[in-house]
Design goal:
Shape: flat
Low-confidence stretches: none
Largest sheet: none
Helix content: over 70%
Order of helices and strands: HHHH
Number of strands: 0
Radius of gyration: 17 Å
Length: 126
């Protein structure tokens, strides 16, 4: 379990907040300057935010928690899910057919689930 105090934890959160500010700037640029819809901009924000959470996952503890996955595995999976949702929202804003979006979402969830199972096997206490 990650200790939620100390200089390192605050530094990692500061990095994440800075990346989220960049994501907001990119979303505003996409909608305000390049003329994309706000749906595409929101999807781009979610995509960048998910990548940030996924990318910073490795700095957290990979020791399994007593009743669940490690902090690192949890953040990796959640970040990947946020990235997938962001990609789906961008594609929705670009007018991609709903059937294609559903297929991409289902395949993405299945791949994330397969990855999470393998992460859990490697680090599980039991």
């Amino acid at each position: 379990m990650t200790e939620n105090t100390g200089k390192d934890y605050r530094s990692h959160q500061a990095v994440l907040i800075c990346i989220l500010i960049i994501a907001v700037a990119v979303a505003i640029l996409l909608a305000g300057y390049f003329g994309f819809s706000w749906t595409v901009a929101a999807g781009a924000f979610l995509f960048i935010a998910g990548l940030a959470v996924t990318g910073i996952a490795h700095v957290h503890s990979d020791a399994p928690d007593k009743f669940g996955p490690s902090e690192s595995a949890y953040r990796l999976v959640i970040g990947t899910v946020i990235t997938l949702i962001g990609a789906i929202v961008v594609l929705l804003g670009l007018g991609v057919d709903l059937v294609i979006l559903i297929v991409v979402l289902l395949i993405g969830i299945a791949l994330i689930g397969l990855g999470a199972v393998h992460i859990g096997k490697r680090t599980s206490k039991y």
